[in-house]
Design brief:
- The complex is a heterodimer of chains A (140) and B (108).
- Chain A has a single domain, classed as 3 helical TM bundles of succinate and fumarate reductases, CATH 1.20.1300.
- Helices cover 70% and strands 0% of the residues of chain A.
- Chain A contains five helices and no strands.
- Chain A is elongated.
- Chain A starts with 12 loop residues before the first helix and ends with a helix.
- Chain B has 108 residues and is an all-alpha fold.
- Helix content of chain B is 88%, strand content 0%.
- Chain B contains four helices and no strands.
- In chain B, helix 1 runs antiparallel to helix 2.
- Chain B is flat, with a radius of gyration of 17 Å.
- The chains are: A mainly alpha (140), B mainly alpha (108).
- Chains A and B meet through helix 1, helix 3, helix 4 and helix 5 of A and helix 1, helix 3 and helix 4 of B.
């Protein structure tokens, strides 16, 4: 197997998902860099260990720092700004991941009723993931 | 070829990890069930963390390489060198993460 060719330019589902994969991948790197930089600015160098810092980098949720040396997570570590960062992260990660799964599956399953069924199933999983993620972020 | 296979495997591993972790968090904090705690115990183990850092750091770096090569296709001439450069960045970064985790584990 080799990698798939890039889809042709134009307003098609494959092309939109192709470009979305690149944009969301880069955006997640930017979100991680912004998150870790602000964590250092808030004093992570002396208050957090490496593992907590990496967890925070992957996903800036206050439950990821509550067991580290940070005295009070409500002071800057849990607010609307981080909720927006988390919502962006869960949306990009979920869509990027489920679309990646679709790409892998469709390399092995040709156009058939099984592909239609799998697309429906993956869409359902994606919707479920984003809704559960939003619920967790907004109620924690 | 190796980068392509690893990108695919690491991508699938991340999808499984993230969805399981989300469900665990949902069960633990929103439903108050012990199921989430038992899933999270696996995630907090040393071996799992060493594995997940490999997967995430590799996928991020290789993805960045793909984005750069897709944005400037004239760089495709240096594809071989780009993979060498990627490993050159990956190995010290991953080694540092593993070193610090083991150091922390020994400290207790």
């Amino acid at each position: 197997m080799t990698s798939r060719p890039a889809p042709r330019l134009g307003f098609s589902f494959e092309y939109i998902m192709w470009i979305f994969t690149r944009i969301s991948g880069f955006s997640m790197l930017v979100l991680a860099v912004v998150g870790v930089s602000l964590a250092f600015w808030m004093g992570a160098r002396t208050q957090m260990d490496m593992i907590a810092l990496l967890r925070w980098t992957f996903f800036p949720n206050s439950f990821h720092v509550v067991n580290s040396g940070v005295p009070d997570v409500t002071q800057g570590w849990a607010n609307a700004f981080w909720q927006i960062m988390e919502i962006l992260m869960i949306f990009f990660a979920g869509t990027h991941g489920i679309n990646g799964l679709r790409n892998v599956l469709e390399d092995y399953i040709g156009p058939s009723w099984a592909r239609v069924f799998l697309r429906g199933l993956l869409f359902g999983i994606w919707l479920f993931m984003v809704i559960v993620g939003l619920y967790i972020i907004l109620t924690i | 070829m190796l980068a392509w296979v690893l990108h695919r495997i690491s991508g699938l591993a991340i999808v499984i990890f993230v969805s399981m972790h989300m469900l665990a968090s949902f069960f633990q904090h929103q439903m108050g069930s012990n199921l989430g705690t038992s899933i999270n115990i696996i995630y907090e183990s040393m071996y799992f963390q060493i594995f997940i850092y490999f997967v995430v750091i590799f996928h991020a770096l290789n993805g960045l390489r793909i984005i750069i090569l897709d944005t400037w296709p004239q760089l495709l001439e240096y594809q071989r060198e780009s993979i060498w450069l990627e490993w050159l960045i990956f190995i010290p970064l991953y080694a540092l993460a593993v070193y610090m985790m083991i150091q922390q584990l020994l400290k207790g």
